[in-house]
Amino acid sequence: MSKITNEDKILILDFGSQYTQLIARRVREGKVYSEIFPFNAPIEKIKAFAPKGIILSGGPASVYDAEAPVCDLEIFKLGVPVFGICYGMQLMAHVLGGRVAKAAKREYGRAELTVDDNTDLLWGIAGQSKVWMSHGDRIEKMPEGFLGIGHTENSPVAAMADKSHKFFCLQFHPEVVHTEEGSRILQNFVFEICRCNPTWEMASFIEWQIADIRARVGGKKVICALSGGVDSSVVALLIHKALGESLTCIFVDNGLLRKDEAEKVRKTFRDHFHINLDFVDARARFIDALAGVTEPEKKRKIIGHEFIAIFEEEAKKFTDAEFLAQGTLYPDVIESVSFKGPSAVIKSHHNVGGLPEKMKLKLIEPLRELFKDEVRVLGHELGLPEEICWRHPFPGPGLAIRCIGEVNEENLEMLREADAIVLEEIKAADLYKTIWQAFAVILPVQSVGVMGDERTYDKVIAVRAVTSLDGMTADWAHIPYDVLGKISGRIINEVRGINRVVYDITSKPPGTIEWE
Ligand code: XMP
Q1: What integer pLDDT is reported at residue 371 of this predicted model?
Q2: What's the CATH architecture for 9-193?
Q3: Sign of the torsion angle spanned by Cα atoms 244, 247, 248, 253
């Protein structure tokens, strides 16, 4: 049963495209709620959701594959508009009586769409516009009742419509930014064709989630691994709002956090929000386990194992807990390519990977449908301090992978101080929100310097700052020289043991964001 009762909703059936989540997001951007179901969702479930329109996503298959994914064909009899994108289009053509064939020339990347009919789906779109193609099949014969409404050089039918049934299809992807007027096309479907009202707000998402969490959990207990980052903080607040005292957050201070961070988490969650907080001081345990280790992957493994061991020990105190809340976001959920639906393959959240199976806890992941920026909006609605809402991503292994070579207290102390200066100056220059991540890295390199009249032979700090949309690709941030100068001057003057600062000007790829 759907958790939503009174809003206009769009249903997206997922055929395995890497862009499915983007469709959902674009629809929500227009303030219309959308949810993704696996392509084989039973018709009863679809009817219960009561969508005002259905979008069939793209996918990697060909309709002629032996195991080609097919949805319940009853959807075409529900009387609601259906919009097929890429594979969704080919599937519609195939099952509604048309013919699909391998294109002589595969079309990937940019193409120029010529609009042949701009009365509904392509309403308001210029005669020629850039679109993003990604397919190997094309429509040879349209099903009865369909008309071509747009074409490209290689696709005589790049867009088609059966106006009487309100069935629409596109060979290209309107959800990606490379399709110039893609948002407009999706809006045409949602508003002009499905007649949705733009009434959805984050506030309704909160209401539904709270109702859903209460219904699932009942009077049982929930534990949540709180890291202090935006995702787990938002989950903690949401669950606390739904369940109050039934939630306990476990926070592990691994000694690899930024300056004053552990204390801030304690203050915010225990003192300000009055959430049950199990604060575990495990600093010594992590430092001991990391002694002498320099190899990055080994550091990661040690930290991961140690975290799980500690979390399990702590969780034993809460024997009556039946649920584990996690801040998994949509980009953490790997799309299915095995046609079992998108929930089939899930990447374990790298901070708490492996916990649920071992601990036999049931998972609650209320952010599974959302993107990072949507989570920030949600945090804002829930009253999370701005500082946490906008916090840059921070890796689970923390400063250990920004301390190149051996992780010891001395290096960590210099790194924490330098890192705090980087952030202070980035914030002072009002650059924090436009930068994806900014931080310091301490290098196991000494160089010669002169301070006052004395020769120094001290360590090097590298400053890393990148802009990015999703962390998958990134550019080095073009920070003004005077800000860089201030950062460098302050680090050298204020952090004992550092006499040189360098700025990392590597994009990703070929570099990664972190140094290890
Ligand atoms: P890279 O360095 O691969 O990082 O370009 C991409 C994003 O992931 C974060 N990151 C991690 N997060 N555990 C985490 O929880 C890790 O082991 C890890 N390694 C990298 C990184 O900070 C960036 O946001």
Answers
A1: 83
A2: 3-Layer(aba) Sandwich (3.40)
A3: negative
